[in-house]
Design brief:
The protein is an all-alpha fold. The protein has one domain. It contains three helices and no strands.
Length: 68
């Protein structure tokens, strides 16, 4: 059973998206290779799709269990 602390942790993990976008934005070596930049962004997209899916699954589970 998930708790509100699990939910809070998953929300905080998703907030890192801003820091990760900044890391890609400021990585000057990616400016020289469009394919490498696209791969970095695609990887970021995939990672956060997984994180947000997990977050929403936890939320649904907690609603179902009347935990929140």
């Amino acid at each position: 059973m998930k708790t509100r602390f699990d939910l809070e942790q998953e929300i905080m993990n998703c907030w890192h998206v801003v820091d990760d976008i900044k890391a890609i934005y400021y990585c000057e070596k990616l400016y020289d290779d469009e394919n490498e930049m696209q791969n970095a962004l695609l990887g970021l997209f995939t990672l956060y799709q997984i994180k947000f899916d997990k977050l929403f699954s936890t939320f649904e589970e907690m609603v179902k269990d009347n935990s929140i």
